[in-house]
Amino acid sequence: MSKRAGALAAPYVFGLTLLVGLPALAALALAFTEYTGIQAPSFNGLDNLSRMAADNAFWRSLGNSVIYVLLSVPLRLVIAIGFALLLYRPAPGVGAARTAVFMPSVVPDVAYAFLWLWLLNPIYGPIALALGSASPDFLTDPWGARIGMALMGAFQVGEAFVIALAARRMIPPSLYEAAAVDGASAWFTLTRVTLPMMAPVMALLALRDIILSLQISFVPALIVTGGGPRYATTYLPLYVYRTAFTYFRFGYAAALSLSMFVLTAVVVYVQYRLARRYRLI
Amino acid sequence: MQDVSKSYRGRGHEPLQALRGIDLDAADGELVVVVGPSGSGKTTLLRCVAGLERPDSGRVSVGGRDVTALDPGDRDLAMVFQEYALYPHLSVRDNISFGLRARKIDAPEISRKVSDAAELLGIETALDRRPAELSGGERQRVALARAIVRAPTAFLLDEPLSNLDAELRAFMRAEIRGLQRTLGTTALYVTHDQVEALTMGDKVAVLRAGKLEQFGTPSEIYDRPASTFVARFIGMPPMNVVPVGMLGPGDGFAGLRPEDLRVTPAAGATLAGKVIHSDSLGHEVIVHVAIGDEVLLVRCTRDGAPALHSETGLTYNDADVYRFGADGRAL
Fold this sequence. Notes:
The structure holds two protein chains of two kinds.
Chain A: H1 3-30, E1 33-34, E2 42-43, H2 47-53, H3 56-87, H4 94-102, H5 109-119, H6 126-131, H7 142-154, H8 158-169, H9 173-181, H10 186-216, H11 218-225, H12 236-245, H13 250-277
Antiparallel strand pairs in A: 1-2
Helix pairs in contact in A: 1-13, 2-13, 3-7, 3-8, 3-10, 5-11, 8-10, 10-13, 12-13
Chain B: E1 2-8, E2 16-22, E3 31-35, H1 42-50, E4 57-59, E5 61-62, E6 65-66, E7 77-80, H2 92-102, H3 107-121, H4 136-148, E8 154-158, H5 166-183, E9 186-191, H6 194-200, E10 203-208, E11 211-216, H7 218-223, H8 228-233, E12 240-243, E13 253-256, E14 262-264, E15 271-280, E16 284-291, E17 294-301, E18 311-315, E19 322-324
C-alpha cells in the first residue's frame, strides 16, 4: 500500500481498531472469565465453553437462528432477484418502483419493528382484521411467530435488490437477441441464460444474507415477539443480549457471541472462496 | 424486403430515420452483402430482417413467407453477431446446441447435428471448452456452427469478421464464403468493409443514410457506380470524383479511378499539379496530386512515381471517365 493510500485509509482504520477491533479483543478475553459487572473479571478457563455445550437454551437459540436463516434467506433472495428481473429495464414508472422496493430498507429498524408489531397484532392488526379467523397466529403460535419474523425480513431487501439489478444489467443484450433468434421461450431463456449468468452473484448474495440474517433478527425479536412465544424466536443475538444485560453474565455472553463469530467466519470463508473462483474480487 | 422504413425516437432529438423505403431481394442460395459506412442503417436493416426490430412500414419475407409480424424465433433464421454472443457459462457443445434444445429436438439428433457442424468447422476438439478458453477465430467458428446447426432458411451475419486480425479476417472471408456455397443457404451479410463486399457477395447493396444507394453484382457496383457516393466508397484506393469543369466544359462530376490515371511531364499536360503526398505499398505507390482545390490519387508503379513536391502532369483515356450529374447520380 502506498503512503498516500495509507494516509487516506488511516481514519477508517483508526475507527475500526477503536470501535470494533479492541472491543472484539476484549470480548475474546472476557469469554474466558466470570464477570458480572460488579466484581472484577476472574479467569475461569474453559468453564464458559463447557457450560455452553450443556446449555439447552443456547442450542435452542442457535437452532432458532438456523431456522430463521432457512426461512428468511431463500425468501429474501427470491424477492430481491424477482424484483430485479422485473425492474431492470427502463420503462415509465420503473424508477418509482425501484425506489419503492428499496424504501423499507431505509426505515429505522425500531420504527420498522413497531410497524410490524401493529401489522401482526392478532386483535387489531390489519392482517388479522382482513383475514379474520383464517389469519395465522403470528404472535401466539411458535411457527406462526417464526414465519412472521421471516415475512418481516422479506421486505428489507434493498441492497440485495440493487446488487441483483446490477448483475442483471451486466448481461450483454446480444445474448438475449441470440436466444430470441434461436426461438428460445421466456422460461428457457430465464433458466438457461439469465439465472446461470447471475449465479455467482446470487451465491454471494445468499452467503452475505446468511451473515446478515444471523444479526438482523435481533431488533424484531426484541420488539415484536420478545423472543417468544415459548422461546420460538429467541435467536442467538437476543440470547446473548439477555445473558449480558438482563442476567449480567458478561463472561458467558462473550463466550456465546464467540459462537456467532465462528459461524460467521465459516460463511465468510466460503464466500471468499466462491468470489475467488468466479473472479469477482 | 419491400419498402421497409424504420426510425428511432431519441430523447429530445429529431426522430432518426434509420431506413428509408428499402427494397432488397436475395435469390435462393445467394449471399447478399449490405455495405455502408457506420450509421448508414445496415445493422438496423439486418435486425429488421431478424425481427429484433419492427419496421415502421414495409414488408419482410423469408422464403416467400411474410414474417413482418412474427417473433424472431418464428422466422427460421440464424444470426451471427458481431461480438459472437456466445454464452460464457456454457460449453462450446451447449452453445452450439442451444437453439436445438430451445426447440426441444431429441437428444440423439442434437448430438449428431452438433458433431456434424463441429466437424464442418474443425472445432471438434473444442466442444467441451468454454468460450473464454477459445481464440477469436475459434469463437467465430463456434458462432458459425451455432448458426448452421439449425439448418435455417437464411443466415444473417452482422460484421462477423470485425473482431479478427487482418490475416485471420482474409482467411475467414474465404471460409465463410465456401461454407455458404457448400450449404447453399441464402445469406445476408452486413459489413462496413468494401473489400469483404466485393469479394464475398453474389450481390452487393450499398447503403447510405438509410437509403439504398445501389444494389447489384460486385462488378456492376465497381464498373457502373450509380452515384458519386458509391464511386467514392467502393475501390481501394477510391475513385477520384472531381467537378467536370476540371476536365472540360460541362456540369456535374467526373470520376477517374487511380489506376486509369497516368503520369506525364508537367509541361503541356491538360492536368498538372504538385505531388503533396505518396503512400508506398511496396509493389506500387499511391501518389496524391494537388490540382487547384482538388487532390487526385494516382496509382503508379514503384519506378514510375513522381518525386514528392515535384510538379507532374496527368493523362487519361476519355473512355475511362465516369460521368455523374450535378445531383451525384450516374449519367
